Amino acid sequence: MAEPTPEQQPQDERPASRVVVVGGGPGGYEAALVARRAGADVTLVELQGLGGAAVLTDVVPSKTLIATAEWMTIAERAPELGIRDGGVPVTDAPPGARAHEVDLARVNARVVELAAAQSRDIAARLESVGVRVVDGHGRLDGPQRVVVDRADGGGRGDGASSSSEVLDADVVLLATGATPRTLPEAMPDGERILTWTQLYGLTSLPERLVVVGSGVTGAEFAGAYNALGSHVVLVSSRDRVLPGEDADAAELIEEVFRQRGMEVMSRSRAQSAVRTADGVLVTLADGRTVEGSHCLMAVGSVPSTHGLGLETAGVRTTRSGHIEVDRVSRTSARGVYAAGDCTGILPLASVAAMQGRIAMAHALGDAVVPLDLQVVAANIFTAPEIATVGASQRTLEESGVRYRTSTLELARNPRAKMLGMHDGFVKLFAHATTGIVLGGVVVAPRAGELVFPITLAVSQRLTADDVAQSFTVYPSLSGSIAEVARTLHHPEA
Q1: Which residues are documented as binding site for FAD?
Q2: Alpha-helical regions (H) of 235-387
Q3: With a threshold of 0.85, does the pTM exceed it?
């Protein structure tokens, strides 16, 4: 009797699928975990460290720094809450004096320590489930083969050099992330002209920090360093900070920035940044100059797709160099998937992780729900934070959808009054006919925590009445979400 073919073998006797993941950030390590749970033989290739930029140089470090800045912001409310510092009313301090000072060297040491600890936790988790981790740079040699240039110089041959290893795969996932964009006329030196990945080497607080770029990264760091005690100049080429965000939220944040002493230069495009004897000189396109002790270049990022062998494998890229993927993370090459910032879909760690999980589920034959950006919650870690989910007011207006909206100021919330919170609001959008919640904006301290009820409403297609009729704790900040939903009640809906 003939031996059964692999397709005829019982499921548990079939050879395990070989999965190679290139990149150890959220998209990569989450994909590796899903693949192992599905029984695949998984190898993850990472050169810089597990967790990728999200853990080592971007999300975890920046939000750790911002957490310290948040405590400085909270401390500013001490006099209003009746708190004295050292027995002396904070209000008696001389003009310009601060009740608290920041030891930036210790702050940055803690930032680096926490990032390294998180990276070790990810490594331990991957090891515990049987994922093989290879230190090195991975590149495609056709759609089902990855060549790894080993960081340790070791290798096993297979036609490659002694410092390389060849990995054959049934499925390849590319999750190589992105790096800060640089300008030829403002090249970072790691000392005075910096990208956001280089800030954590500073041992003393910049006296005057010029931040070039008013998008999410620029706004977050400008707000953080302003709270830590630096004089900050924010150079924005647009009419306002955070040009891609809800207009009301962005306007409020810019107003708060100015109230806290930040110098915001709107409609001012930076042309160059050069070192001076004791600082930096930033030249604007109109000829004006801005002097500072340090300059942070926050002008976007570029995908880390160079040297991946994409053309060899038949993987298409966009004009910007991002890898083209569909809603289940497939590329144009059979068996090759991609996730995270290298795809340019939405630069959020949560989206990268979801892309990686979807990719593995699809590749290994599990049920899968394609990526839906309409239910993605996002947060900007300014003070106050801006959290959004679902459709924005701009997209609703541009699409012609009939909608109703209502806004409630945070200052009206009793819990906010108790905590000395003044700046912020909750805004909801609901369909004019059905009452289904289409989106929302929360501007408040810890808005990233508060937006979750709205995320549930959007993802589960709840109506404003559904939200309004749900109990909230009194007093609570989340009570404002139910209250603003009650104002959207439509008897005919």
Answers
A1: 63, 138, 341
A2: 247-259, 310-313, 349-363
A3: yes
